[in-house]
Design brief:
Elements lengths: L1 H9 L8 H23 L20 H16 L3 H28 L2 H8 L9
Length: about 130
């Protein structure tokens, strides 16, 4: 996963002159920062090993969502077949990681099933 992200970032220009893609990257970074701050301010406890504040009230994996937005903007900003392929592999790895994490949390916490019913995984109101 890290190798694909490094490849996507360094296989094209890092600073794009295209404003829409730059705004998508900025939005992704803001989501990541918001999620990290929410986790630090409301640390998970022993009985609930997950955070339900901030962006976690809307989606269960905002850091992954922000990361994928940033990487998608890199790929779209300077498109090539190899970058699309790297993003596809990255996307598969992130989705598998999400599924693994959720199965683990389902076993650790009884409240996680209820939390899953209230939120979506990565795309608000869709999935």
């Amino acid at each position: 996963m890290i190798l694909m992200a490094v490849y996507i970032i360094f296989s094209g220009p890092i600073f794009m002159g295209n404003l829409p893609f730059l705004l998508v990257q900025l939005f992704g970074l803001l989501i990541i920062i918001w999620a990290v701050l929410a986790r630090r301010m409301h640390k998970p406890g022993k009985h609930t090993p997950f955070t339900t504040y901030g962006p976690y009230e809307i989606i269960r994996h905002p850091i992954y969502a922000g990361f994928l937005l940033v990487m998608c903007a890199f790929v779209q900003g300077y498109a090539s077949i190899s970058r699309f392929f790297a993003f596809f592999i990255l996307l598969i790895c992130v989705l598998l990681k999400i599924i693994y994490d959720e199965r683990k949390l389902e076993k650790e916490s009884v409240d996680y099933k209820h939390y899953q019913k209230k939120t979506h995984r990565i795309i608000p109101y869709l999935w």
